[in-house]
Amino acid sequence: MILSIIIVNYNVKYFLEQCLCSIQKAITDIDAEIIVIDNNSHDGSVEYLQSLFPLVIFLVNEKNLGFGKANNIALQQARGKYVLFLNPDTIVAEDCFTHCISFLENTTNAGAAGIRMIDGSGKFLPESKRSFPSPLSSFYKLVGLASLFPTSKIFNRYALGNLDENKIYEIDVLAGAFMMIKKEVLEKVKGFDESFFMYGEDIDLSYRIQQAGYAIYYLGETTIIHFKGESVKKQNISYVRMFYNAMNIFVGKHYNSLIAFIFSLFIKAAIAIRTVVAIIEPLFQFFSSSKIKEAQTLIIGSIEEQQEVSSILENAGSVNKNFIFFNFTNISTIKNFIQKSNPDKIIFCEGNLKYSEIILLMQSITSGSFRFHATGSKSIVGSDSKKGFGETIAIK
Protein backbone atom coordinates (compact mmCIF):
# COMPACT_ATOMS: atom_id res chain seq x y z
CA MET A 1 0.00 0.00 0.00
CA ILE A 2 1.52 3.31 -1.10
CA LEU A 3 -0.96 5.87 0.20
CA SER A 4 -3.53 6.07 2.99
CA ILE A 5 -5.89 9.06 2.75
CA ILE A 6 -7.54 9.98 6.06
CA ILE A 7 -10.47 12.41 6.19
CA VAL A 8 -12.23 13.58 9.34
CA ASN A 9 -15.84 14.45 8.56
CA TYR A 10 -18.29 16.52 10.55
CA ASN A 11 -21.61 17.47 8.91
CA VAL A 12 -20.30 18.26 5.41
CA LYS A 13 -21.57 15.28 3.42
CA TYR A 14 -22.02 17.09 0.10
CA PHE A 15 -18.60 18.72 0.18
CA LEU A 16 -17.14 15.35 1.14
CA GLU A 17 -19.01 13.73 -1.76
CA GLN A 18 -17.29 16.06 -4.22
CA CYS A 19 -13.96 15.54 -2.43
CA LEU A 20 -14.20 11.76 -2.72
CA CYS A 21 -15.06 12.01 -6.41
CA SER A 22 -11.88 14.00 -6.99
CA ILE A 23 -9.80 11.57 -4.90
CA GLN A 24 -10.98 8.62 -6.97
CA LYS A 25 -9.56 10.31 -10.07
CA ALA A 26 -6.28 11.13 -8.31
CA ILE A 27 -5.60 7.55 -7.11
CA THR A 28 -6.25 5.84 -10.45
CA ASP A 29 -2.61 4.73 -10.77
CA ILE A 30 -1.79 4.50 -7.04
CA ASP A 31 -2.24 1.60 -4.64
CA ALA A 32 -4.26 3.59 -2.12
CA GLU A 33 -6.95 3.39 0.53
CA ILE A 34 -9.43 6.03 1.69
CA ILE A 35 -10.46 6.16 5.35
CA VAL A 36 -13.27 8.50 6.38
CA ILE A 37 -13.74 8.88 10.13
CA ASP A 38 -16.98 10.58 11.09
CA ASN A 39 -17.10 12.68 14.26
CA ASN A 40 -20.75 11.99 15.12
CA SER A 41 -22.28 13.99 12.25
CA HIS A 42 -26.02 14.61 12.47
CA ASP A 43 -26.57 15.25 8.75
CA GLY A 44 -26.66 11.58 7.73
CA SER A 45 -23.18 11.72 6.22
CA VAL A 46 -22.27 8.05 6.65
CA GLU A 47 -25.62 6.69 5.47
CA TYR A 48 -25.56 8.98 2.44
CA LEU A 49 -21.95 8.30 1.39
CA GLN A 50 -21.50 4.58 2.12
CA SER A 51 -23.69 3.48 -0.75
CA LEU A 52 -22.05 5.93 -3.16
CA PHE A 53 -18.48 4.96 -2.25
CA PRO A 54 -18.44 1.24 -1.34
CA LEU A 55 -14.62 0.99 -1.43
CA VAL A 56 -14.15 3.74 1.16
CA ILE A 57 -13.51 2.61 4.76
CA PHE A 58 -15.94 4.40 7.10
CA LEU A 59 -15.23 4.67 10.83
CA VAL A 60 -17.85 6.22 13.09
CA ASN A 61 -17.27 7.93 16.43
CA GLU A 62 -20.16 8.08 18.88
CA LYS A 63 -19.23 11.67 19.77
CA ASN A 64 -17.15 14.49 18.33
CA LEU A 65 -13.64 13.62 19.49
CA GLY A 66 -11.91 16.53 17.75
CA PHE A 67 -9.63 16.62 14.73
CA GLY A 68 -6.42 15.21 16.20
CA LYS A 69 -7.91 12.29 18.12
CA ALA A 70 -10.08 11.22 15.18
CA ASN A 71 -7.07 11.25 12.87
CA ASN A 72 -5.10 9.16 15.35
CA ILE A 73 -7.86 6.54 15.46
CA ALA A 74 -7.84 6.27 11.67
CA LEU A 75 -4.05 6.28 11.62
CA GLN A 76 -4.03 3.02 13.57
CA GLN A 77 -5.68 1.34 10.59
CA ALA A 78 -3.66 3.06 7.87
CA ARG A 79 -1.47 0.71 5.83
CA GLY A 80 0.17 3.16 3.44
CA LYS A 81 3.84 4.06 3.21
CA TYR A 82 2.57 7.64 3.05
CA VAL A 83 -0.37 9.09 4.96
CA LEU A 84 -2.37 12.06 3.72
CA PHE A 85 -4.52 13.95 6.22
CA LEU A 86 -7.06 15.75 4.03
CA ASN A 87 -9.97 18.04 4.84
CA PRO A 88 -13.42 17.03 3.54
CA ASP A 89 -14.01 20.47 2.01
CA THR A 90 -11.32 20.06 -0.64
CA ILE A 91 -11.10 19.14 -4.31
CA VAL A 92 -7.80 17.71 -5.52
CA ALA A 93 -6.21 17.76 -8.97
CA GLU A 94 -5.60 14.45 -10.74
CA ASP A 95 -1.81 14.69 -10.46
CA CYS A 96 -1.38 16.10 -6.96
CA PHE A 97 -0.87 12.80 -5.09
CA THR A 98 1.65 11.40 -7.59
CA HIS A 99 3.46 14.76 -7.54
CA CYS A 100 3.77 14.76 -3.73
CA ILE A 101 4.73 11.08 -3.49
CA SER A 102 7.41 11.50 -6.17
CA PHE A 103 8.85 14.49 -4.33
CA LEU A 104 8.96 12.68 -0.98
CA GLU A 105 10.50 9.61 -2.61
CA ASN A 106 13.29 11.64 -4.19
CA THR A 107 14.06 14.16 -1.43
CA THR A 108 16.31 12.57 1.17
CA ASN A 109 15.56 14.74 4.21
CA ALA A 110 11.84 15.22 3.52
CA GLY A 111 9.44 13.92 6.14
CA ALA A 112 6.29 15.70 5.03
CA ALA A 113 4.85 17.92 2.30
CA GLY A 114 2.08 20.47 1.93
CA ILE A 115 0.61 21.95 -1.20
CA ARG A 116 -0.59 25.18 -2.80
CA MET A 117 -4.24 25.85 -1.97
CA ILE A 118 -6.85 28.20 -3.40
CA ASP A 119 -10.28 28.96 -1.98
CA GLY A 120 -13.60 28.47 -3.75
CA SER A 121 -13.23 31.76 -5.62
CA GLY A 122 -9.78 30.90 -6.98
CA LYS A 123 -7.78 33.07 -4.55
CA PHE A 124 -4.51 31.79 -3.09
CA LEU A 125 -4.73 30.79 0.57
CA PRO A 126 -1.67 32.21 2.38
CA GLU A 127 -1.86 29.56 5.11
CA SER A 128 -0.60 27.08 2.50
CA LYS A 129 2.92 27.99 3.69
CA ARG A 130 3.68 29.25 7.19
CA SER A 131 6.41 29.78 9.74
CA PHE A 132 6.06 28.97 13.42
CA PRO A 133 4.14 31.67 15.32
CA SER A 134 6.04 34.22 17.38
CA PRO A 135 4.82 37.15 19.50
CA LEU A 136 6.04 39.65 16.91
CA SER A 137 4.59 37.92 13.85
CA SER A 138 1.31 37.48 15.73
CA PHE A 139 1.30 41.19 16.59
CA TYR A 140 1.83 42.16 12.95
CA LYS A 141 -1.04 39.90 11.94
CA LEU A 142 -3.29 41.17 14.73
CA VAL A 143 -2.85 44.89 13.93
CA GLY A 144 -3.22 44.35 10.19
CA LEU A 145 0.36 45.00 9.05
CA ALA A 146 0.54 41.50 7.52
CA SER A 147 -2.45 42.34 5.33
CA LEU A 148 -1.09 45.77 4.40
CA PHE A 149 2.29 44.33 3.40
CA PRO A 150 1.47 40.79 2.20
CA THR A 151 4.85 40.20 0.52
CA SER A 152 6.96 41.57 3.37
CA LYS A 153 9.50 39.21 4.93
CA ILE A 154 9.13 41.10 8.21
CA PHE A 155 5.46 42.04 8.53
CA ASN A 156 4.06 38.88 6.94
CA ARG A 157 6.60 36.49 8.37
CA TYR A 158 3.94 34.07 9.64
CA ALA A 159 2.53 33.42 6.12
CA LEU A 160 6.00 33.62 4.52
CA GLY A 161 4.67 36.33 2.25
CA ASN A 162 8.06 36.92 0.63
CA LEU A 163 8.14 33.42 -0.89
CA ASP A 164 6.77 32.76 -4.38
CA GLU A 165 3.52 30.80 -3.97
CA ASN A 166 4.23 28.80 -7.15
CA LYS A 167 7.62 27.38 -6.15
CA ILE A 168 9.03 24.74 -3.78
CA TYR A 169 10.43 25.71 -0.39
CA GLU A 170 11.38 24.15 2.91
CA ILE A 171 8.97 25.64 5.45
CA ASP A 172 7.98 25.28 9.11
CA VAL A 173 4.27 24.49 9.19
CA LEU A 174 1.99 22.21 7.20
CA ALA A 175 -1.61 23.27 6.66
CA GLY A 176 -3.96 20.79 8.34
CA ALA A 177 -6.15 20.69 5.22
CA PHE A 178 -3.47 18.76 3.29
CA MET A 179 -0.62 17.04 5.13
CA MET A 180 1.20 14.21 3.36
CA ILE A 181 3.60 12.55 5.80
CA LYS A 182 5.77 9.45 5.70
CA LYS A 183 4.24 6.73 7.88
CA GLU A 184 7.61 6.07 9.54
CA VAL A 185 7.75 9.74 10.60
CA LEU A 186 4.27 9.59 12.12
CA GLU A 187 5.23 6.49 14.06
CA LYS A 188 8.30 8.24 15.42
CA VAL A 189 6.45 11.39 16.56
CA LYS A 190 3.37 9.38 17.65
CA GLY A 191 0.78 11.21 15.59
CA PHE A 192 -1.29 14.17 16.71
CA ASP A 193 -1.30 15.64 20.21
CA GLU A 194 -4.90 15.04 21.33
CA SER A 195 -4.87 17.96 23.77
CA PHE A 196 -5.67 20.11 20.72
CA PHE A 197 -9.37 19.66 19.95
CA MET A 198 -9.33 21.61 16.69
CA TYR A 199 -6.77 24.07 15.27
CA GLY A 200 -3.14 24.27 16.30
CA GLU A 201 -2.56 20.53 16.02
CA ASP A 202 -1.05 20.98 12.53
CA ILE A 203 1.47 23.48 13.93
CA ASP A 204 2.31 21.18 16.82
CA LEU A 205 2.77 18.14 14.59
CA SER A 206 4.94 20.13 12.19
CA TYR A 207 7.10 21.29 15.08
CA ARG A 208 7.62 17.73 16.34
CA ILE A 209 8.42 16.46 12.83
CA GLN A 210 11.21 19.01 12.59
CA GLN A 211 12.41 18.22 16.09
CA ALA A 212 12.70 14.58 14.98
CA GLY A 213 15.14 15.67 12.25
CA TYR A 214 12.90 15.77 9.17
CA ALA A 215 12.29 18.63 6.76
CA ILE A 216 8.86 19.91 5.72
CA TYR A 217 8.28 21.17 2.20
CA TYR A 218 5.75 23.40 0.48
CA LEU A 219 5.01 22.29 -3.08
CA GLY A 220 3.71 25.26 -5.04
CA GLU A 221 3.71 23.58 -8.43
CA THR A 222 0.38 21.80 -8.00
CA THR A 223 -2.85 23.18 -6.56
CA ILE A 224 -5.99 22.01 -4.75
CA ILE A 225 -9.23 23.78 -3.85
CA HIS A 226 -9.90 24.23 -0.15
CA PHE A 227 -13.31 25.74 0.45
CA LYS A 228 -12.17 26.40 4.02
CA GLY A 229 -14.18 26.45 7.15
CA GLU A 230 -17.20 24.39 6.16
CA SER A 231 -16.93 22.24 9.28
CA VAL A 232 -16.63 25.25 11.58
CA LYS A 233 -18.20 28.50 10.53
CA LYS A 234 -15.72 31.35 10.80
CA GLN A 235 -18.12 33.95 12.15
CA ASN A 236 -18.80 31.84 15.22
CA ILE A 237 -17.36 33.28 18.44
CA SER A 238 -16.58 29.79 19.72
CA TYR A 239 -14.35 29.33 16.65
CA VAL A 240 -12.43 32.50 17.56
CA ARG A 241 -11.77 31.28 21.08
CA MET A 242 -10.96 27.76 19.93
CA PHE A 243 -8.42 28.98 17.39
CA TYR A 244 -6.52 31.34 19.68
CA ASN A 245 -6.65 28.99 22.66
CA ALA A 246 -5.06 26.31 20.46
CA MET A 247 -2.23 28.76 19.71
CA ASN A 248 -1.88 29.31 23.44
CA ILE A 249 -1.51 25.55 24.04
CA PHE A 250 1.19 25.32 21.37
CA VAL A 251 3.23 28.23 22.74
CA GLY A 252 2.97 27.02 26.33
CA LYS A 253 4.12 23.57 25.25
CA HIS A 254 7.10 24.46 23.08
CA TYR A 255 8.36 27.97 24.01
CA ASN A 256 10.10 29.22 27.13
CA SER A 257 8.05 30.81 29.90
CA LEU A 258 8.82 34.46 29.02
CA ILE A 259 7.86 34.09 25.35
CA ALA A 260 4.82 32.06 26.37
CA PHE A 261 3.73 34.85 28.75
CA ILE A 262 4.15 37.58 26.12
CA PHE A 263 2.36 35.45 23.57
CA SER A 264 -0.54 34.81 25.93
CA LEU A 265 -1.09 38.57 26.26
CA PHE A 266 -1.34 38.94 22.50
CA ILE A 267 -3.67 35.97 22.32
CA LYS A 268 -6.00 37.41 24.96
CA ALA A 269 -6.09 40.71 23.06
CA ALA A 270 -6.72 38.86 19.80
CA ILE A 271 -9.61 36.90 21.32
CA ALA A 272 -11.22 40.13 22.57
CA ILE A 273 -10.83 41.94 19.25
CA ARG A 274 -11.90 39.02 17.08
CA THR A 275 -14.92 38.38 19.33
CA VAL A 276 -16.10 41.97 18.79
CA VAL A 277 -15.53 41.62 15.03
CA ALA A 278 -17.43 38.31 14.99
CA ILE A 279 -20.40 40.04 16.62
CA ILE A 280 -20.57 43.17 14.46
CA GLU A 281 -19.46 41.78 11.08
CA PRO A 282 -22.79 40.07 10.30
CA LEU A 283 -24.56 43.36 11.07
CA PHE A 284 -22.48 45.22 8.49
CA GLN A 285 -23.17 42.48 5.97
CA PHE A 286 -26.91 42.73 6.66
CA PHE A 287 -27.17 46.52 6.31
CA SER A 288 -24.87 46.67 3.29
CA SER A 289 -26.77 43.96 1.43
CA SER A 290 -29.11 44.94 -1.36
CA LYS A 291 -31.52 43.13 -3.63
CA ILE A 292 -29.64 41.06 -6.15
CA LYS A 293 -30.97 40.49 -9.63
CA GLU A 294 -31.63 36.95 -10.75
CA ALA A 295 -28.15 35.65 -11.47
CA GLN A 296 -27.10 34.46 -14.88
CA THR A 297 -25.69 30.96 -14.46
CA LEU A 298 -23.37 29.26 -16.93
CA ILE A 299 -23.24 25.46 -16.83
CA ILE A 300 -20.07 24.10 -18.46
CA GLY A 301 -20.07 20.43 -19.39
CA SER A 302 -21.22 17.82 -21.85
CA ILE A 303 -24.91 17.59 -22.77
CA GLU A 304 -25.32 14.64 -20.38
CA GLU A 305 -23.59 16.53 -17.56
CA GLN A 306 -25.72 19.61 -18.16
CA GLN A 307 -28.85 17.47 -17.93
CA GLU A 308 -27.59 15.97 -14.69
CA VAL A 309 -26.99 19.41 -13.16
CA SER A 310 -30.36 20.69 -14.37
CA SER A 311 -32.07 17.71 -12.74
CA ILE A 312 -30.34 18.43 -9.40
CA LEU A 313 -31.27 22.11 -9.56
CA GLU A 314 -34.90 21.37 -10.40
CA ASN A 315 -35.17 18.66 -7.74
CA ALA A 316 -33.73 21.01 -5.12
CA GLY A 317 -36.15 23.73 -6.11
CA SER A 318 -33.46 26.04 -7.49
CA VAL A 319 -35.44 27.36 -10.43
CA ASN A 320 -33.61 29.95 -12.50
CA LYS A 321 -34.61 31.06 -15.99
CA ASN A 322 -31.23 32.63 -16.75
CA PHE A 323 -29.29 29.45 -17.49
CA ILE A 324 -26.67 29.31 -20.23
CA PHE A 325 -25.37 25.92 -21.33
CA PHE A 326 -21.98 25.49 -22.94
CA ASN A 327 -20.69 22.21 -24.38
CA PHE A 328 -16.95 22.96 -24.60
CA THR A 329 -14.31 21.69 -26.99
CA ASN A 330 -11.16 22.90 -25.20
CA ILE A 331 -9.93 25.23 -22.44
CA SER A 332 -9.37 28.23 -24.72
CA THR A 333 -12.93 28.09 -26.06
CA ILE A 334 -14.25 28.00 -22.47
CA LYS A 335 -12.24 31.12 -21.56
CA ASN A 336 -13.44 32.97 -24.63
CA PHE A 337 -17.07 32.03 -24.02
CA ILE A 338 -16.89 33.11 -20.36
CA GLN A 339 -15.42 36.48 -21.36
CA LYS A 340 -18.21 37.03 -23.88
CA SER A 341 -21.12 35.88 -21.72
CA ASN A 342 -19.81 37.36 -18.42
CA PRO A 343 -21.98 35.11 -16.18
CA ASP A 344 -22.67 35.78 -12.50
CA LYS A 345 -22.18 32.12 -11.60
CA ILE A 346 -20.37 29.23 -13.27
CA ILE A 347 -21.10 25.57 -12.56
CA PHE A 348 -18.16 23.41 -13.61
CA CYS A 349 -19.11 19.84 -14.45
CA GLU A 350 -16.20 17.50 -13.83
CA GLY A 351 -16.17 14.55 -16.17
CA ASN A 352 -14.98 15.43 -19.62
CA LEU A 353 -13.41 18.46 -17.95
CA LYS A 354 -10.56 17.53 -15.57
CA TYR A 355 -10.19 18.89 -12.04
CA SER A 356 -6.76 20.27 -12.95
CA GLU A 357 -8.35 22.15 -15.86
CA ILE A 358 -11.10 23.54 -13.62
CA ILE A 359 -8.49 24.77 -11.14
CA LEU A 360 -6.58 26.54 -13.92
CA LEU A 361 -9.76 28.11 -15.26
CA MET A 362 -10.80 29.42 -11.85
CA GLN A 363 -7.56 31.32 -11.48
CA SER A 364 -7.83 32.91 -14.92
CA ILE A 365 -11.39 34.22 -14.47
CA THR A 366 -11.65 37.59 -12.75
CA SER A 367 -15.37 37.76 -12.00
CA GLY A 368 -18.29 35.53 -11.06
CA SER A 369 -18.64 32.78 -8.51
CA PHE A 370 -17.98 29.07 -9.00
CA ARG A 371 -19.84 25.87 -8.21
CA PHE A 372 -18.69 22.29 -8.74
CA HIS A 373 -20.37 19.05 -9.73
CA ALA A 374 -18.71 15.69 -10.36
CA THR A 375 -20.33 13.44 -12.94
CA GLY A 376 -22.54 10.87 -11.23
CA SER A 377 -22.70 12.74 -7.91
CA LYS A 378 -25.95 14.02 -6.43
CA SER A 379 -24.81 17.47 -5.36
CA ILE A 380 -23.37 20.83 -6.38
CA VAL A 381 -21.12 22.72 -3.95
CA GLY A 382 -19.17 25.95 -3.75
CA SER A 383 -18.05 28.83 -1.57
CA ASP A 384 -17.49 32.46 -2.56
CA SER A 385 -15.39 33.43 0.44
CA LYS A 386 -13.36 31.73 3.14
CA LYS A 387 -15.18 33.99 5.64
CA GLY A 388 -18.68 33.15 4.52
CA PHE A 389 -20.98 30.18 4.33
CA GLY A 390 -20.64 27.74 1.49
CA GLU A 391 -23.52 26.63 -0.72
CA THR A 392 -24.77 23.11 -1.31
CA ILE A 393 -27.49 22.13 -3.75
CA ALA A 394 -28.54 18.49 -3.65
CA ILE A 395 -31.29 16.10 -4.58
CA LYS A 396 -33.74 16.06 -1.68
Structure description:
This protein has 396 residues and is of the alpha/beta class. It folds into 3 domains: 3-129 and 165-232, Spore Coat Polysaccharide Biosynthesis Protein SpsA, Chain A (Alpha-Beta Complex), CATH 3.90.550.10; 233-289; 297-394, 3-Layer(aba) Sandwich (Rossmann fold), CATH 3.40.50. Helices cover 39% and strands 21% of the residues. The protein is built from 13 helices and 15 strands. It has helices at 13-26, 45-50, 67-75, 96-106, 135-143, 145-148, 183-189, 201-211, 237-254, 257-288, 303-315, 331-341, 355-364; strands at 3-9, 32-38, 57-60, 82-86, 90-91, 110-118, 168-171, 178-182, 215-226, 297-300, 323-326, 345-350, 369-374, 379-382, 391-394. The strands form 3 sheets. Strands 1, 2, 3, 4, 5, 6, 7, 8 and 9 form a 9-stranded mixed β-sheet that branches. Helix 5 (135-143) runs parallel beside helix 10 and helix 9 packs antiparallel against helix 10. It is globular. 43% of the residues are buried. The model is unreliable at 288-293 (pLDDT under 50).
Spatial gap, N to C terminus = 37 Å
Mean pLDDT: 86
Would you identify the regions where 5 or more consecutive residues have pLDDT less than 50?
288-293
What is the number of beta strands? Answer: 15
Which percent range describes the beta-strand content?
15-25%
Note the total helix count. 13
Q: Percent range for helical residues?
A: 25-40%
CATH superfamily of the largest domain: Spore Coat Polysaccharide Biosynthesis Protein SpsA, Chain A
Report the CATH topology name of the largest domain: Spore Coat Polysaccharide Biosynthesis Protein SpsA, Chain A
So, CATH architecture of the largest domain? Alpha-Beta Complex
